Amino acid sequence: MTWRPAQRVVLLATERPSLAAFRRAAVWLLSLLLLAACETGNMGEKELVLTPLEAPALRQTLTSHTLSRTGGTLWQLWEYAGVHRDDGTMTGRVTWSGEEQLGQGTWALSPEGLYCRTWQNEWGGGKLGCFRASITPQAPTEESDAPALVAPRSIVFDHVSGSRGDAERYTYLLIPGNPYGL
Known about the structure:
- This protein is an alpha+beta fold.
- The protein is built from three helices and nine strands; from the N terminus they run ααβαββββββββ.
- A hairpin with a 4-residue loop joins strand 2 and strand 3.
């Protein structure tokens, strides 16, 4: 009897895999998942072009807009969103795995033009922390006769003094308005 390719595939698909083949597949899958869970840092990312924000521009940029960032690992992803108000108050929300934590705080600009914040919960240890703020330039994402689409802007906060929270540098996406209703 001559085996045709289609018959051979059916026969192979109905054979039981060996325990060794199962173990190889399990090791491969586990390796892939562990690799995906690793944080990559800045490998392969372009360096951000940053423009320092002076106090008046920083106040205007932050007020009534949302700062958003995400982080974590494959097993525990989280999202932060925060809104700064004219009166020096701010509200933040962190969500992860169906859970949510809200935080209230205050913010101000120092005489040196630093952004300083204090959360009224355990974020940042509940202590004052000050940061130098920079922003990515606003540039069209494509050129055409139509109105330019604008690439999202990022604000970067580099720790200067006081409580740094969980990082020396924070990079947030700047979202116009308050789409999260904070």
